[in-house]
Specification:
Na+/H+ antiporter like fold; single chain; mainly alpha; globular
Length: 385
């Protein structure tokens, strides 16, 4: 890898914000970054080979950073969300058996691992849905708060299930490694909560702020990289380490400047580079060569929408809530990132998962538009006398 290639990848990642601006926020930046990788990778020009040694390290660091930011932005301290956790948990419990059935149907039609398809179908994406909710000013409604809780719980459950679904033959080994990493994450959370309010830590953070040391970011990166190394050594996934450290930072309530620093380092460099390299891993020509892959993409998209609509119906919420909760991107990206190198899925199945995720984003945007029009049509409350 040379600096010219890295500059090309960083420039290509700008397609993400460009498409998001052109679509007025309907398409998240992730979509454009993935498409940039598709164009530069195996599908079209073949300029970027993600198997190069330097790029594989950037790929791993970017994936761990992505999971870190996903965990950090889980709204653990939102009182309204905590009040709706019961409804979100019920929705997830209803959706899981439906997703297992849908995953089996996808397996029968397109081969491939049924359990992986079920994990993809049951998932939601807080990274997509929550900004859509905020942009359309839908917060506050009990149904929307229940949807936010449902999306958050489904996101967490599906994320943690990915390594076990991809390697069921090594489930015990992977689960043991994940437990070791989880124990380290718990110890990290305990230690952070005990020392966070001490005078010494307050003094160090004050000096860091005054002198521009970025101590909070440095400590978070040490924990992230250290636990990522441990995860690889004990047979767990980078996903568990990154997501766990992000949850700890979100739980202890990291300062705003840490969020800005992670935004600059992660969303400004590592995460966009990861998504471009992930797109370069894909070979969408497999969709043209294999009719089963096209059928699989359609079934995954239809199964995702159907499972979320049925779940919203069972919970007696409007159908638009089910459409809103159908958004997917993080879990499909993680399945592709982990499944292709390990051989758990092939190029046709990865391309189908990718296309189904793009369809789900459009479905989420449609659900938000319906909810916005419904709210606009509601009569204004009568003034108090």
């Amino acid at each position: 890898m040379d600096l010219g290639l890295l500059a090309l990848i960083c420039a290509a990642a700008l397609l993400g914000p460009a498409l998001s601006l052109l679509s007025r926020g309907v398409l998240p930046a992730i979509v454009g970054q993935l498409l940039a990788g598709v164009l530069l990778g195996q599908t079209l020009f073949g300029v970027v080979d993600p198997a190069r040694p330097g790029l594989t390290l950037l790929y791993d660091v970017g994936f761990a950073t992505l999971m870190f930011t996903v965990g950090m932005h889980i709204p653990l301290h939102d009182d309204r969300l905590r009040a709706a956790l019961g409804a979100g948990a019920r929705a997830t419990l209803v959706a899981i058996p439906l997703a297992l059935v849908a995953g089996e149907l996808c397996h029968l039609a397109g081969t491939g691992p049924a359990l992986v398809y079920a994990v993809v179908i049951v998932s939601s994406s807080a990274a997509v849905a929550l900004p859509v909710i905020q942009e359309n000013r839908l917060e506050g409604s009990p149904n929307v708060m229940a949807a936010m809780a449902w999306i958050t719980i489904a996101d967490v459950v599906a994320t943690l299930a990915i390594p076990l679904a991809l390697t069921p033959g090594r489930a015990l080994h992977a689960a043991g490694g994940a437990l070791i990493v989880a124990a380290c994450v718990a110890a990290l959370a305990f230690a952070a909560s005990r020392v966070r309010g001490s005078a010494l830590v307050a003094h160090i953070r004050h000096e860091s702020k005054k002198r521009g040391w970025a101590i909070d970011l440095r400590v978070a990166l040490v924990a992230l990289v250290g636990l990522s190394y441990l995860a690889l050594q004990v047979g767990a996934s980078l996903l568990v380490a990154g997501f766990g450290v992000g949850l700890v930072v979100g739980w202890i309530g990291g300062p705003k400047r840490l969020s800005h620093e992670v935004l600059g380092l992660g969303q400004g460099f590592f995460v966009p580079v990861f998504f471009v390299l992930l797109g370069a891993h894909l070979d969408l020509r497999a969709l043209g060569h294999d009719g089963r892959a096209v059928l699989l993409a359609l079934l995954l998209a239809a199964g995702t929408v159907a499972v979320h609509l049925i779940t919203s119906r069972v919970l007696r919420t409007p159908p638009a809530i089910g459409l809103l909760a159908s958004a997917q991107i993080g879990v499909p990206a993680a399945v592709i990132a982990l499944g292709l190198p390990s051989g758990a899925i092939d190029q046709g199945q990865a391309s189908a998962i990718f296309c189904a995720a793009l369809i789900s984003i459009g479905v989420c945007a449609a659900g938000a538009a319906i909810l916005r029009r419904t709210r606009a049509a509601e009569p204004a409350p009568a003034p108090a006398v």
